[in-house]
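A protein record pairs a chain with a discrete description of its three-dimensional fold. The following entry can be read in just this way:
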Amino acid sequence: MVSRSTGWTGRVLLGAVAVLVLLLMASGTASAHARLVATDPAASSVLLTPPARAVLHFDDVVTVDAGSLRVFGPGGGRVDDGTASHPAGDGHAVAVGLAPDLGRGSYVVAWRVISDDGHPVHGAYVFSVGSDRGAVRASVLAGALATESGASGVGAVAGVLRWVGLAGLLTLVGLSLLVAVAWAPAGPNRRVGRILWVAWGVALIATAAGIVVEGVYGALLPLGDAVRPSLVGEVLRTRFGRAEALRVVLLVAFVPVLAGVRRGPGGSGRRPRWVTAGVVTLGSALVVATALAGHAATGTAPALGLALDIVHLAGGSVWVGGLALLAAVLVRPAADDRPAPPAALARTVSAWLLGAAAAVFVSGTVQAVRQVGSRYALIHTPYGRTLVVKVLLVALLVGLGAASRRLVHGSWGLRRPPAAVDSGAAPDPVRAGRLSRTVMAELALVLAVVGVTAALVNDVPARQAVGLPFTASVTMVGVQVNAIVDPARAGIGNEVHVYLLSAAGTPEAVLALDAVLRLPSSGRAPLRVALHLSGPGHYYATDVVLPVAGTWTLTFRVRTASGDLGSASVLLPVH
């Protein structure tokens, strides 16, 4: 009997591996948020003849609609033909036709596209025809368009849906796996059954709603426009949308399997083989689909990144499912539920949780090194700081898990004979109460970890984020100082642009503007930035040398036309 069971389990696992391989082969490589790499016309260029169209090139496939690329003329009106598309079928590029009679002056190109990972990316830049007169005013408009974020709250709703959906999916996959495989002899438990169906419903509703909300999130539209079918179609053309649609299909296919798990074992004391096979196969496919929706497979060796994310999610599902099973059976069990031997259950689940923790730790560590790459990126990027929070929460979770294991093995005897373990003898009530409280604390903490993990999906990976320009804004003596340092790296070739705006948002002319760089920790003398006046309210400096990496202090001093003198500083991380 043992050999037949072992052979059957091996065949099920081999089938799950085959499903994983097929899904990985069909997925291709994944990228993070798309980045703009080139434009035609080029940013800040002055053309002698009007261009026929504007073309933007990205480092990843992007999805477009009629409003993805807009061009505004010197008077503020639209001068494009509203037909944004992929030129020559190139998914990495977006183009829009322009009016044939563009006059002299400065124009603003504003773009908004959806990355292949489902995240919206947008921005704006300026080019001129014949003369750069009006470039400052155009730069103000470009700055406003580049920072527009759509309706407030839509991003929060999308984030909550990702968190809830991930929590439901991990609970469904992990709990059904443990009930079907690790705790197969157990009879039906109504509380466990209710948790499984609730987790399934939450995962299905959150996934379907996430596809709909992602459309308005990517289009920077209010939540009321979520019912537009065209927006859903745009999302479904992205890798994120296809992966989420696959998740919906797999969740629907999970229904008969879940019903089989809920019914419990038959007269032989074992569940039907198709139930176990369905749990392992469909659960594995759900994990892969979830991994495909994220941006873990970015950077070097994307196949390795995707494999690591699959292991990470699989370990997390076992961790969440194991805690849910312990909480359902040990914390105030219902009188109408078939009791489970608490000692044997705790020992079995504890072993699975230990393996899950090891998988989460190893895969998460390797993935963090890939996505972060440096201590600078860990400290100075939203992704890195969010990752630090996740690591601290996981460390606390591991500590609580160690306390639970001590209660399990210390109270119920790790070295008892097997017969004593299977007897179902009642544990020490005091230690059992402590274990229940510890399990509930672990469950609450693991849900917090899932929430932080969902937040990481929305952040640009740290290794990519450090390549973005540094931006800062300060206000002094009624003047708003907006600074851009690109690429903010140690060495030569850095550019500094400073835009001065009045309280009304118009370019502000001042008598003098000075900028000084200091690195207090190095003892170096201050470096004066040689700013040149480009136009009203716009100063720039090229080939700025930042000798070493570190957190520099960039200080601005402004003297206004009325004689007021102001000073303000910002921290400039140089990598």
About this structure: The chain has a mean pLDDT of 78. The two ends are 62 Å apart (CA to CA). DSSP finds 14 helices and 17 strands in the chain. Residues 342-372 form the longest helix (31 residues).
